[in-house]
Amino acid sequence: MLVKLVSWNVNGVRAVSAKPDWRWFRETEAQVVGLQETKAAPEQLPDAVREPEGWQAWWDASTVRKGYSGVAVFSRIPPLAVAAELPDPRWRGEGRLLHLEFPWFHYFNGYFPNGGAEEVDADGRPTGGFKRLDYKMGFFEAFAAYAQKCRETKPVVVCGDFNIACEPIDLARPKDNEKNTGFLPVERDFMRRFKALGYVDSFRHVHGDAPGQYTWWSYKTRARARNVGWRLDYFFVSEELAPAIADAWIESGVHGSDHCPVGVALRVPDAGC
Q1: Residues tagged active-site
Q2: With contact defined as beta carbons under 8 Å apart, do 248 and 207 qualify?
Q3: Cα–Cα nearest to 251, from 24, 49, 56
Q4: 219-249 confidence digits (pLDDT tens)
Q5: Is residue 273 scored above 60 in pLDDT?
Q6: Distance between CA 168 and CA 179 in Å, rounded?
Q7: What are the two backbone dihedrals, phi and then psi, of residue 181, each rounded to the nearest 5 degrees?
Q8: What does pTM read for this prediction?
C-alpha cells in the first residue's frame, strides 16, 4: 500500500486555519499530516480544527510559554502508540515533538529549535554567538539518540522544521548566511552526522541536486516572490526504509505561512489499515 505523509510549519494554526489557504488540509490525500509551530493549545481551537472529522488528532503545546512553538499530528491510520516530547526532562516543555508508532515505522513530527537572537556585548556589538544555539544543539543530540534507540525495533521517519539548511544548495544565498543561525558550521555538522547515522533526505533521494527548491521564505523584502528562500523542512527516513520511497515533494504553491508543506510517499506492506 502507498502511505502519503505531509508536513507543514503553519506559523500559527489559529491564523492559517481562518484563511482560504486552509483548504490545503481539507483537500489533502495524505494519511498522516504533521504541523509545526502551531502556537496554540487544543482547547483554544474550534472542533473542526482540533479534531477534524475522519481524523484522529494529537497535540503537543508549549507549557513554558503560551502561544509558542507546538506541534500536532492528524492521522487516518490508527497508531499503535503515541508519545509526546523527548524522554530527557531537559528538553521537555516547549511542545516540540510527537512520536507515533505505526505498523511499519516510528514516525516523529518535530519543530526543532532555532538558534535564537544573536548575542551582543555591553556596547551592542554582535559577539558571534546566539542565545539559543546550545539548547538547539543539545535538543538535536538528544533527539538523534532517541531516534536511534527507537530504530532498534523498526525503521524511523522524521519530518518537520529542522531550522537548518543542510548544504549550500539548500538556500538561495549561502555565502551571505555563513555566520547566521540555520547555516552555521556546527548546525550543518550535526545534519551531516545525522545522515551518516543512516538517515536519508527523501527529497534529495528523489530529486538529486535540483536547485532553487526551498520551503521557507522571509516575509521581508518579498523573498517568496523572488524565491530567495531556505530549505528547512524535511522528511528523513532511516536507510532501511529508503527502498520504500515512492515520491517526495515540496508544495511551494501553498501559501498561508512563511513555510510551505513538504511530503513523502512510502510503499509499505498492507497491514490491514
Answers
A1: 161
A2: yes
A3: 24
A4: 988 999 999 999 999 999 999 999 999 999 9
A5: no
A6: 13
A7: -60, 140
A8: 0.96
The Cα 255–Cα 249 span in angstroms is 15
Q: How many CB atoms lie within 10 A of CB 210?
A: 11
C-alpha span between 134 and 138 (Å, rounded): 6
- CB count within 10 Å of CB 270 equals 7
Q: What is the mean pLDDT of the chain?
A: 96
Which burial class, exposed, middle or buried, applies to 248 when counting CB atoms under 10 A from its CB (0-12, 13-18, 19+)?
buried
DSSP state of 256: S
Q: Indicate if the pLDDT at residue 271 is higher than 80.
A: no
Mean pLDDT computed over 249-273: 93
Return d(Cα 256, Cα 39) in angstroms, integer: 15
How far apart (Å, rounded) are the C-alpha atoms in residues 186 and 192?
10
Closest CA to 140 of 199, 83, 224: 199
Structural domain boundaries in the chain: 2-267
What percent of the chain clears pLDDT 70, i.e. is strictly above it? 96
CA-closest candidate to residue 62, choices 54, 53, 47, 72: 72
Is 58:184 a contact under the CB 8 Å cutoff? no
Residues 160, 157, 71, 141: is their CA dihedral positive or negative?
A: negative
- CATH architecture entry for 2-267: 4-Layer Sandwich (3.60)
Assign residue 272 a region: left if phi > 0, alpha if psi is -120 to 50, beta otherwise?
left
Residues facing residue 101 across a β-bridge: 81, 106
Report the alpha-carbon distance of residue 12 to residue 37 in Å, rounded.
6
